[in-house]
């Protein structure tokens, strides 16, 4: 583990990821969700008390428990492999051989450097190699990998890799356009900027196919 705090701060401020996989410990699921909620509840209580908040106030009494449940059951629920959606695929009986695009999939994630929201849209496409996947499954895959402390580049790669495995083809692409509240609401406080990341596999590395995909999603960014 890197001990240099100045270097660690630089990584966080510049949203640098040191791994293509989420840094989850091997013992992450030794204890139950209920035990995690109890532990996090106490930690949140400690944070709020340290900040000087009065937890006897009716408005704040339930906050530690609400935050703990939200962390475990909702916004970080994608860390648990038991919640991974089953990516059921089917034979491409229609013999559809063109690009299939699912665009404007809403992304709600959390920046792993400041634990602030990442909000945007994912655009996902694939070209069938004999198998197709249900449209809602594409949304669920995006949601699953988004619901964890994330870096947008990693999230984009994970979505593509999961679909490549499920569909048995390299011909998958994903573009995410999102706002990071760690940029928009703190630090530089630039409320207008957004971040665009992309991952292109197989035929999408070809400029003509890639351009067709970008035309479908009406994204002006050049790659």
UniProtKB/TrEMBL annotation:
Q: Does the keyword Membrane apply?
A: no
- GO terms, molecular function: GTP binding; GTP cyclohydrolase I activity; zinc ion binding
InterPro entries hit by this protein: GTP-CH-I_C/QueF, GTP-CH-I_N, GTP_CycHdrlase_I, GTP_CycHdrlase_I_CS, GTP_CycHdrlase_I_dom
Q: Name one Pfam family in it.
A: GTP_cyclohydroI
Every copy of the GTP cyclohydrolase I domain together lies at 40-217
Which example biological process does GO assign this protein? one-carbon metabolic process
E.C. numbers: 3.5.4.16
Which GO cellular component terms, listed alphabetically, does the Swiss-Prot or TrEMBL entry include? Answer: cytoplasm
The biological pathway it contributes to is:
Cofactor biosynthesis; 7,8-dihydroneopterin triphosphate biosynthesis; 7,8-dihydroneopterin triphosphate from GTP: step 1/1
Asked if the record carries the keyword Hydrolase, the reply is: yes
Query: Which reaction is the catalytic activity of this chain?
Result: GTP + H2O = 7,8-dihydroneopterin 3'-triphosphate + formate + H(+)
Which PANTHER family does the UniProt record give? GTP CYCLOHYDROLASE 1 (PTHR11109:SF7), GTP CYCLOHYDROLASE I (PTHR11109)
The record's section on HAMAP family has: FolE
The UniProt subunit note reads as follows: Homopolymer.
Would you identify the family this protein belongs to, as annotated? Belongs to the GTP cyclohydrolase I family.
Q: Under which name does UniProt file this protein?
A: GTP cyclohydrolase 1
Q: Supply the gene name.
A: folE
